Amino acid sequence: MMSWLAAIRVENTKLYRSYVFIGILAFFLFVTVIRAGESDWTVYLQNVVFMFSSVFGIIGFGAVVSWTFGREYSDRTFKDLLALPVSRGTIVMAKSAVAASCCFILALITFGFAIMTGFIAGMQGFSTVEVKHYLIQLLIAVCLHVVLCGPVAFIASASRGYLMPIGFAFTTLMVALIAGSTPLGAYLPWSIPALQLAGSSISAFPLNAVSYMIPVIAGTAGLAATWAWWRSADHK
């Protein structure tokens, strides 16, 4: 337990002292400001949450996970990390926990900033009921995308860097945008968060119980593959 907490503290220090957290947050806030002047509270909050259901969730969170698992190679600290008296499973779980918490923090800061921006912009029709509704939808979308980062962590580890996992994230975004509006979207992991948001009102292709299991299966498989790869990383 102590080694796991120590590993989390180390990973926290690495992430929050890097340019990654500030850079991604700045991008999220910039896009949020751009969307502020275009409509009322309902449409504005829906647009913000939709961004987390799609681009922010896939690319933004993917970048966080890619950096968390891939930086050890670019910084040439991978072999030193494996030599530490900490189990490799502990390292993987610590990295996963820190990356997941970072994604939630990014989402909550952006949502709070969106509300503040809406008041500054003088939007009409503010409702606490709608804020609670879209906050819940935001948390659901973040949970789904955090789970779906499992394959990204594996690709970052196996490819020993950032390029392939970022490319994978962009590819899945394109696939989600193309296939998400078709019946196939309800069974495509990266389309499901956006369809979940649409399903909270009206959706042409509503989700079913199997749809919610698909991200869990894909994410669990990715995390298990990451753990297995790190177990034999010094033989790769």
TrEMBL record:
Regions crossing the membrane: 20-37, 49-69, 97-122, 134-156, 168-190, 210-230
Keyword Transmembrane in record: yes
A Pfam family that the UniProt record links to this protein: ABC2_membrane_4
Keywords annotated in UniProt: Membrane, Transmembrane, Transmembrane helix
Record-given protein name: Bacitracin ABC transporter permease
